[in-house]
Amino acid sequence: MDDPPLQKIAISGPTLASLIQRFSTSPSAIHGLLYGHVTDLPATLSDDAAVEASPTLLATVTAFLSSPDPHLSAAAVPTHSAPFLGWFSARRRSPLRPSMREFSLTTSLSSQSQSPNPKPSPFIFLLLASPPSDPSHIHTHEYRAFQFCGGRFEPRSLDVVNIGPAFRGHYGAFSPSSPLPPLRYGPPRGSPMSDDGEERLGRLKQAAKDQRKLDACADGFDVGRLSRMMGSEAKSYTEGLEELYQKMLLKIENLTCLVEKTSAMVLEQLMWSAVTPDVVMSAKIAEKTHCQFDPSGKLTFGNFVDKRLESLAEALVE
Fold first, then answer.
1. Which CATH number among 3.40.140.10, 3.90.550.10, 2.60.40.10, 3.60.20.20 corresponds to the domain 8-43+52-160?
2. How far apart are CA 134 and CA 152, in angstroms?
């Protein structure tokens, strides 16, 4: 009995991201098992009786398990909370189509997984590959999903279930974290003349504290301008926001240059520490006696030593 056809295959975003990350960090090709569940989609009713009923099954991949064994076996599938759906293969610099080895292994896994189950279930195969002409500085990953049905691979659409406007509700509990100081959405209420001295002093201290926090991210950007970029009036301060980003990038660039100069100084000190003591002593003697080394390594005396020799020669002649 043939496996029931699938309308499409879905995979959760974290599972796909983790699978691609495992593939990109692996030194060679990887493969493993896929887990998930199969659900029925609501049928689309139609008054046209001649129209054939379309598949209403959806296979959702929720987890995977990489296996070091190149010869996968369904009999050795570890126990998992989700049912076994199929397997995946990820290989580098190869076309995005199943190979003869993958066809043979899929046939074996499909027959082994269906033998203990009286009711057949869909068997899927996920193929990941990098382009054959992919340069080393660009990471490109392609993937394609298949259902193995009737002894052949049938392509199926692959949906990532938590990317897009339909899944924004999944991130309702997200709380952003930023090094920028928390600011109010507008100027403080009340007139400065009506405030007492302690309240005005407290606001000035808070403003100075916020300014120091902001200077740690972007030098020379006023904290008052940042407060005006929040709230309903933020649309009119686009240029100021771009300037803030430029100052933050400049801060990072200055830090990078400082680290580069410090690394060069440390390297120079390490090179000097590797010089032999004899060379250092020769350089010190040459400095004290006004001597210098020529390009051939021969020691030559300076003007001061030449004059002393000349005066000594004249005294001997007399």
1. 3.40.140.10
2. 29
